[in-house]
Amino acid sequence: MNEPPPLAIAGAGPAGLVAATLLARAGRRVVVHEKNATVGARFVGDLQVIEDASDRAENVPAMFARLGIPAPRWVPATNAEFFDAKMRRFEVASREPYAWFVTRGPDEGTLDTTLLEGARRAGAEVLFRSRIEPQAADLVATGPQTPDGLARETAFETDATTRVRVLFDPAVAPGGYAYLFTVGGRGTFGCAVVHDLGGIDRYFGRAKEKLLSVDDVPMESPRDAYSFMNFALAPEARRDGKPAAGEAGAFQDYLFGLGMRYAIASGALAAEALLTGGDFAALARERFGRRQRVSLVNRFLYEAGGAFGLSLFARLAARADFRSVLGAFYRPGSVRLALAPLVAALWRNRGRCAHRLPPHWCRAREREVRAVELGRIG
Fold it and tell me: What are the counts of helices (DSSP H) followed by strands (DSSP E) for the chain?
C-alpha cells in the first residue's frame, strides 16, 4: 500500500545502467530515462579501453564480479607499441593486463548492450526517447556536458592481427595522442586533442598518415564518429541538487581521458548512497577526491613536457612493467597532491562555463570550444 515511487535515473550510459542494476537487485523500482533511441547511440562499434592500473587492490574483472554486473566481450591488453614524435618505437608490456578492450555502441556484445541486458534482468525499466530533467531525477548520469577535449575516430573491420599502437606527438595531437587498435578483426583509429579543438579533422588526417605509415592496415567498412570529454573537478558531485555519477558528476581520468572505470565505480557508489540514505557527494569525495586531484597534475605534466617529455614517458614505459608504471602515476602521492592547487590556479577558467555543475573548478577554455558546441565540427 505504501510502496515508494520508482527511482528515476537520467541517462543509460555505464554509470546509469550500473546504478539501475544494483538498485533493482536490491528490490527498488527503477526507471532509466534515455533521450536517444538506444544505448551507446554516439558510438559506432569502436574499440575503447577500460584502464586497469589505478586500483592495485582490485582489477577490472574482479570489480565486475564483486558488483555482480555482467561482463562484456573484452580482450586483455598486456602489450603495446608507443611512438614518439620522431616515430621511434618503444615496446611496452605488462605481466597482468593494464587495460581491457571493449566495443561501444548499440550492437550485441558491446559494453553498452551488455549492461542494458543486465539492468533489465535485474528488473529495471529502461525507457528510450525519454527525457527527464535533472531536478526531477534521483540520479543524473547523462555523460559529458561540454567539450574540453575532443576525439575523432574511425571504426572498421580488418585482419586478425593484433595491433596496439599509440603516437605521442603534440604536432599532430596537441595535448592528446593518436591510437590504432586492431583486435579480433575489429579496428579503431582515433586522434584525441585538448587544444585547438576546431582543428580536429586536420589533426586526424595528419595523425592517420603518420601512424599508419608503420604498415598497411586493411580498413573495411569504415564508420566515423566524434566524442568529447569534460575537464572539471566538482567537490559536490551534483547536478541541479541531485547526485550525479560518471562524467555528469565530473568523474574523469585526465591523464589519458579514460572514464569508463570511473563511470562504473561512481554509478555503483551512487546506488549504495540511494539505498542507505548516505550522502553521495561526501562518499564520492572520500573515494575519488585525492585520485582526481592527482589526475589533474598528471594532465599538467603530460602537456607541459611537450614532445621531449612524451618521448621520455614512452621510454620509461618500455623499461618496466607498464601496469606498474601506470599505477605509479595514478597513486595519490604527496608531491602531486601538493602541486594540485597550484595547477588548478594556473589553469582556472574565469570566463564562461557550460559544465552545468555546482561551484566547481574547470580549466580555462579556448575559443574553438564554442565552435564545437555550435555543431560546426563534424
Answer: 10, 18
